[in-house]
Amino acid sequence: MELQIEHLYKSYRTKEALQDVSFTLHQGTYGLLGENGAGKSTLMRMIATVDFPTKGAIKYDGTDIFLMDEEYRNLIGYMPQNYSVYPGFTAREFLEYMGTLKGISKEKLKTRIPEVLEFVNLSDVADKKVKTFSGGMKRRIGIAQAIINEPKILILDEPTAGLDPKERIRFSNIISDMGKDKVVLLSTHIVSDIEAIANELLVVKKGKIVETGNVDGLVQTVQGKVWETIISREIYHQLRKERSIIHLKQMGNDVQVRYVGDEYSGVDNSEVEPNLEDYYVFAGGILEESEE
Ligand SMILES: Nc1ncnc2c1ncn2[C@@H]1O[C@H](COP(=O)(O)OP(=O)(O)OP(=O)(O)O)[C@@H](O)[C@H]1O
After folding, report:
1. CATH superfamily placement of domain 3-214
2. pLDDT band, very low/low/confident/very high, at 292 (cuts 50, 70, 90)
3. Which ligand 1 atom sits closest to the C-alpha of 189?
4. Judging by beta carbons within 10 Å of its beta carbon (0-12, 13-18, 19+), is residue 73 exposed, middle or buried?
5. What integer is the mean pLDDT of 206-222?
């Protein structure tokens, strides 16, 4: 199974939202990372066929998805950004409604609905009205409707927005499991979400894909470049001009700093294990510089 994005462009009247975007997705979990307005939703809307590219193609195993029509729509599950659920429905009624819209038979829904409710951990509230649900529960019912047709491609736009830390972990577990037999593509502007959920990273910046790669592989590229040190405020003011700062903690008159780059001389540094945030800040720094 392969989903190919080929030289994709999308322009709105006054805005080039995507410019020459190309990449290929296979089975696995992909995280689309980028700031607000970078073009993530635009890209996902086109992969979900709810919007059309201005130029370029999206192909599923070599066939243009817009020509596959119904056949492709049966293969995908999509949760748009700010997904809202009809509040008057119970969870079960909502899934019956969405399942019917997707053309699933009543017979099949009888077994499939309990399965998806179990999967997203909502079995015990199946007959409660959705309006009584927390934000995280609503998000989980959004995923349930997206997977009800057993999609081969699952597209989740900002699925973790507004979730509390406990829901975030529950959610990560649910999504990581799904990448085993599907293409899962999710967007976020939170780096740690990618690390917790995705194996592959796609960084979007101003309508372009500026980086792609395996999360562990990318993190390894900053191995030996991430440091922690406790220094005075004066030294910190100098250090921050010369290195990318990841994290800062006040410690009385001193500050504890995590930074990425070459080891800063003249202070006591401890080398620390890198994470995706370190990589992202480091790579972001490089990208900004090369743009100038
Ligand atoms: N229907 C539209 N008409 C005009 N401009 C649009 C439209 N949809 C998106 N844009 C613009 O295209 C750019 C990309 O928007 P998009 O929503 O894809 O970004 P995003 O990365 O998903 O950010 P966010 O997380 O804020 O949604 C933005 O500048 C946005 O203002």
Report:
1. P-loop containing nucleotide triphosphate hydrolases (3.40.50.300)
2. very low
3. 25
4. middle
5. 93
**How far lies 127's CA from each of 92, 97, 104, in Å?**
6, 14, 20
Measured distance CA(207)–CA(77) in Å, rounded: 24
Residues of the chain with CATH 3.40.50.300: 3-214
Please give the distance, rounded to the nearest whole angstrom, from the Cα atom of residue 183 to the centre of ligand 1.
23
Q: Which atom of ligand 1 is nearest to the CA of 13?
A: 4
Best residue among 8, 10, 11, 12 to mutate for probing ligand 1, ranked by most atoms within 8 Å of CB: 12
Atom of ligand 1 nearest to the CA of 39: 18
Give the type of residue at 178: M
Q: Which atom of ligand 1 is nearest to the CA of 41?
A: 22
pLDDT value of residue 53: 97
Give the C-alpha separation, 28 to 213, whole Å. 12
Instruction: Supply the pTM of this predicted model.
Output: 0.88
Run of H or E residues at 111:
helix 106-119
Residue 169: which of 135, 148, 197 has the closest Cα? 197
**Who lines ligand 1 at CB under 6 A?**
12, 15, 17, 34, 36-42, 81
Question: Beta 15-25 vs 3-12: how paired, if at all?
Answer: antiparallel
